[in-house]
Amino acid sequence: MIDENLLLDYGARKVSYSKGDQLFREGESALNFYQIISGEVKMNNYNEDGKEFIQGIFSIGQSFGEPPLFANVKYPANAEAISDAEVLQVPKEQFLELLSSNPKVHLKITETLAKRLFYKAIMVSEISSQEPEHRILRILDYLKKYVHKKEGQFSFRVDLTRQQLADLTGLRVETVIRATKSLEKKGELQIKKRKVYR
User: Which SMART domains match (predicted)?
Assistant: First the structure.
């Protein structure tokens, strides 16, 4: 997370979005750096059949959509508010200037991007070859350890819907429901008041 005042010093403006609003679309030019003040944003794609695949879900203090800023390529995915959200938006040139003038911030962004590459590497191998239960455990363990930094059995409450879990793992909702019930029976998950714990 980059300090809000530093972003404002480099020309950030606060923009409000309603649930369902698009921040940018796949194929558009990358013009801004985005950091979330409140709410949640997902990055997603749709296949030819209209099935959604969620690339990632981002919340307070997180940034998203940076790689195209550095690579001078079009956005490979859409960004959509999944709740009402307020976002700091910094024009590309000012953001690059901020990084040039603040090496520690630049290093933090590099670390964030490296973690996302790690996540993508894990998920590509999972989605291409693994069984549903394994995919679900892998994404939950990644979120538990690397995103929410939780330890201990059933200490991580999963705040994703079954649909979001399906979209993150490339599965159907029905498959996620069956697999989570099976994982509960095996003692890998707990389900309390319709919430999953890992």
Answer: cNMP, HTH_CRP
Residue 156's CB is within 10 A of a number of other CB atoms, namely 21
Residues 155 and 77 in one domain: no
Q: What is the pLDDT along the chain (198 residues), one digit of tens a residue?
A: 899 999 999 999 999 999 999 999 999 999 999 999 999 999 999 888 888 888 889 999 999 999 999 999 999 999 999 999 999 999 999 999 999 999 999 999 999 999 888 888 877 776 766 789 988 998 899 889 887 889 999 999 999 889 999 988 888 899 999 999 999 999 999 999 889 999
- Provide the residue range defining the domain that includes 81: 4-119
Within this chain, do residues 138 and 112 fall inside the same structural domain, yes or no?
Answer: no
Site of tokens 């980059």: 2
The overall longest dimension of the chain from CA atoms, in Å, is 54
Q: Can you list the alpha helix ranges (DSSP code H) found in the chain?
A: 4-9, 67-71, 92-101, 103-129, 132-142, 162-169, 173-185
Residues 106 and 158 in one domain: no
| Rounded Cα gap, residues 71 and 169, in angstroms | 27
168/108 Cα distance (integer angstroms) = 25
Is-above-0.85 flag for pTM? no
Cα(14)–Cα(62) distance, integer angstroms: 15
